[in-house]
Design brief:
By secondary structure, the protein is of the alpha/beta class. The chain has helices at about 1-10, 30-40, 45, 75-85, 95-105, 105-115, 130-135, 155-165, 185-190, 190-195, 205-215, 230-240, 300-305, and strands at about 25, 65-70, 90-95, 120-125, 140-145, 165-180, 200-205, 220-225, 245-250, 265-270, 280-285, 285-290, 295, 315, 345-349. It binds S-adenosylmethionine (SAM).
């Protein structure tokens, strides 16, 4: 499908509105610090945004970031602003037309952000062969990707490569499309459905299995939205399959377990993370008020203690005594169907 995808994103689509789904619309507007960064990004870069979620976690200042399938560079430029002049952002994409737009604004965006020298670079390459386009031994603190993994044919390899490229304590924070069941081969053979990020979508439970096999023991679901298809012919072909755009965060932490285990540990958020002064959000069901004590499983403890968040929490307990399975972490089937009542506003892209 490589040529079809390149043709679709390089020639067929000219702007976000040309997509045949609502994938790049969000139910709620992005947070203020992202909106502020977006207001500084050139219109042409934003017009060719084809992502399906917010792929930027909190506290990225100073980080070295890799964006897989960076397209026209929108997320790279938001990150360029947020990591600061000392941070580094590298975008990889295989479509020359998208890279041309991204590269055109490297100097413009550096000026807009008040940087002496740009901290962004774009590389032409296939994310299924990252060893051919990245510098040998290059490692990253954060890998992001927006609506791209579904377009790849060897998802297991991409996940394994990301795990390898991350520094210990780093994370893969990304949005992609998932299906509520395995997609049939007939749908997978359809180049439009594939290029529209639908038929290459993994069944969510297969994704969890592949992510764990790649080393990401405990994928954390952040948010999701059901995708609607605005095209009758495509809708008919898809039949009953439901698609969701979902943001996950996958930490690379050596001692994470595949289940949430109870060790009698607790944490307290001290405050101080700029974007979340009073309430710290780790994922969909781990939301911590400042100053309040919470019992956590061993994995959540490590996601806060073995990462950049460490200094912002107080930690109680250790891993010496195991008390069985932790019951507070919920299940892994997180997607909620969107209940549109007509009055619900969609903030497009
Ligand atoms: C849906 S668009 C998303 C672009 C960008 N992330 C955004 O949010 O606007 C998918 C992008 O992934 C790129 N892409 C797809 N498969 C790729 C691969 N195997 N290697 C590199 N880039 C790929 C396409 O060229 C396209 O720019």
């Amino acid at each position: 499908m490589k040529e079809e995808i390149q043709n679709y994103y390089g020639k067929e689509l000219q702007k976000s509105e040309d997509l045949k789904t609502n994938a790049c619309c969000t139910l709620t507007p992005p947070p203020l610090h992202i909106r502020n960064a977006l207001s500084l990004i050139h219109d042409e870069v934003q017009a060719k945004y084809y992502g399906c979620g917010l792929t930027i976690p909190s506290m990225v200042k100073g980080m070295k970031v890799l964006d897989l399938g960076s397209g026209s560079g929108r997320d790279c430029y938001i990150l360029s602003k947020l990591v600061g002049e000392k941070g580094v952002v590298v975008g990889v994409d295989m479509t020359p037309e998208q890279l041309e737009v991204a590269n055109k604004y490297v100097g413009y965006q550096a000026d807009k952000f008040g940087y002496k020298k740009s901290n962004v670079s774009f590389v032409e390459g296939n994310i299924e062969r990252l060893n051919e386009c990245l510098k040998k031994d290059d490692k990253f603190d954060l890998v992001v990707s927006n609506c791209v993994l579904n377009l790849t044919s060897n998802k297991q390899k991409v996940l394994e490569d990301i795990f390898y490229l991350l520094n210990e304590g780093g994370e893969f924070y990304f949005s992609d499309v998932y299906a509520d069941r395995r997609v049939s081969q007939e749908l997978m053979n359809d180049p439009i459905l594939w290029s529209e990020c639908l038929s290459g979508a993994l069944y969510w439970n297969d994704f969890l299995r592949l992510a764990k096999m790649a080393g990401f023991a405990d994928p954390r679901y952040v948010e999701s939205k059901e995708i609607t298809v605005n095209n009758e012919e495509l809708q008919r072909k898809l039949g009953p399959v439901k698609f969701f755009s979902v943001t996950y965060r996958l930490f690379k932490i050596q001692n994470l377990e595949t289940d949430c285990e109870e060790y009698g540990q607790s944490i307290k958020y001290k405050g101080g993370v700029e974007e979340m002064p009073n309430i710290f959000v780790l994922d969909d069901h781990h939301v911590f008020e400042k100053g309040r004590m919470y019992s956590v499983c061993g994995n959540t403890y490590l996601m806060l203690n073995a990462t950049r968040y460490k200094d912002y929490f107080e930690f109680y307990g250790n891993f010496e005594q195991h008390y069985g399975i932790f019951e507070g972490c919920g299940t892994n089937m997180p997607f909620k169907e969107t209940t549109t009542n007509g009055s619900q506003a969609m903030a497009c892209c």
